[in-house]
Amino acid sequence: MKNCLTCGHSQEEGKFCGKCGAPLESSVLEQAATINDMNDYQDQPQSQFAQTVQETSQSSDQIELIKKQSKLYINHFLEQSKNPSASLNVEAAWKNNIISMVIYVIITALSVFMLLKRFTSGGFGFFESYGPSIIQVIFYMSLFLTLLIAINVLAIFLTSKLFSENLSFRNIISKIGNYYALPIAITILSILLGLLKSYTYSIFMLYVGFTLAIVIIPIFVMINVLSNTSKIIDNFYSFIFYLVVTGVLSAIIFSFIIDSAIGDYLGFLL
Predict the structure, then answer these.
(1) What is the mean pLDDT of residues 226-249?
(2) N or C: lower Cβ tally within 10 Å for the chain?
(3) For the chain, what is the domain count?
């Protein structure tokens, strides 16, 4: 039975009351359900649209953040190129110095890959099929260089902690990274020379950049740390301790590298 909401008349069939002509109860409920379905349908696209707008806004914010960080790093790089020994706020500079180290590691790996491909593509194609892939070279070289940089940071940290001021890892990274603008520039030059097929000069510049980043800069920083702080023992013996720690750890790393796949790839350059 269907009841009329206006006059209370009951009837079994029909959508309208046979007495007063008003819509029956079931018809009103059906219309309400239809309206609710339409509202849900209309709300769903609006919700999806709002979500899309939010995701777009977040992507835009991330892009702006990347642009801002890139601009800050470029300014930092140019400043360090002009005056690498300037004393900077460690908290403000250490992140940019880590970026410099990462950039150096990546471009050095790319330079090594380019030279390896040059050598492995020679010999009438005999070595071409056995040449390393770019992923292999970047992975192994990045690991190799990262370990060497970590050894220098650890050696300076131990030496400063035992014989000089108690420097944090962040402070040491900041001090070393201040001087990485020059190795980066030299390694980029190595890549450009390789693209121009001047491979002898490219290898030479690669070694110069490597020597600066891994040997000369850490030694220079260690000497400054020892000379600018109070002495527990003579600076000469402190420096000898640094060299011993660096030498022992480096020997362990090199023995590991020689026994790994990267040793075969580095053999092409030696």
Answers:
(1) 83
(2) C
(3) 1
Q: What percent of the chain has pLDDT over 90?
A: 28
Q: Give the helix/strand (H/E) hosting 2.
A: strand 2-3
Number of helices followed by number of strands (H, E) in the chain:
9, 2
Per-residue pLDDT tens for 142-186? 888 999 999 999 999 999 888 877 788 888 988 898 899 999 999
Cα 215 to chain centroid distance, Å, stands at 24
Q: Which domain holds residue 100?
A: 83-266
- Determine the Cα–Cα distance for residues 64 and 175; give it in Å rounded to an integer: 29
Q: 197 phi and psi, to 5 degrees?
A: 65, 25
Count CB atoms within 10 A of the CB of residue 136.
15
DSSP H or E segment with residue 3? strand 2-3
Helix (H, G, I), strand (E, B) or coil at 268: coil
Q: What confidence tier does 9 reach under pLDDT thresholds 50, 70, 90?
A: low
Q: Which residues of 242-254 are buried (b: 16+ CB within 10 A; e: fewer)?
A: beebbeebbeebe
The answer to whether 22 touches 13, Cβ cutoff 8 Å, is no
Query: Within a domain: residue 166?
Result: yes
Residue 169 lies in a domain: yes
214 close to 149: Cβ distance less than 8 angstroms? yes
Report yes or no on 136 lying in a domain.
yes
**What DSSP line would sit under 10-42, residue for residue?**
EESS-SB-TTT-PBBHHHHHHHHHHHHHHHHHH
Residue 212, pLDDT score: 95
Question: What single-letter DSSP state applies at residue 220?
Answer: H
pLDDT at 227 > cutoff 70: yes
Q: Out of 122-126, 211-215, 219-223, 249-253, which region has the weakest mean confidence (pLDDT)?
A: 122-126
